[in-house]
Task: inverse folding
């Protein structure tokens, strides 16, 4: 995997609350300026990264555009997810729970490069509570 570059590092907000996603180390960091307030790992990221395909996690600077806490059907995986925090509207990617059944029980807690581009986590409630619409999300190698 490519190393972070100065250009990539310049995308990191220096102040305010934001979310950092490291697709190499499978880590999400909840940030306040340059301070990590919570580190969540391991998480799942896209099986494909930066390919440009619809089912790919893209790197760059995004912003939270919507949130939905309720259990919802996830057609690609024929299962359910909860605690949606959308940040890449072009690829329909966001943070959400591990895959669940209709009762909300986790049925797939896989981490690593396994998703269709979304960031899956077992700490979905923490990310959901931290995230605000408009908040920066930096995704990087």
Result:
């Amino acid at each position: 995997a490519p190393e972070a570059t100065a250009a990539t590092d310049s995308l990191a907000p220096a102040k305010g609350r934001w979310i950092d996603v490291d697709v190499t180390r499978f880590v999400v960091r909840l940030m306040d300026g340059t301070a990590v307030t919570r580190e969540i790992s391991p998480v799942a990221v896209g099986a494909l990264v930066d390919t440009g395909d619809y089912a790919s996690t893209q790197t760059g600077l995004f912003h939270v555009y919507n949130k939905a806490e309720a259990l919802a059907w996830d057609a690609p995986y024929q299962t359910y997810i909860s605690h949606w925090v959308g940040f890449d509207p072009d690829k329909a990617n966001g943070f959400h729970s591990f895959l669940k059944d209709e009762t909300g029980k986790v049925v797939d807690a896989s981490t690593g490069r396994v998703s269709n581009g979304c960031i899956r986590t077992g700490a979905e409630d923490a990310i959901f509570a931290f995230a605000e619409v408009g908040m920066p999300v930096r995704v990087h190698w």
About this structure: Helices lie at 6-9, 124-130. The two ends are 7 Å apart (CA to CA).
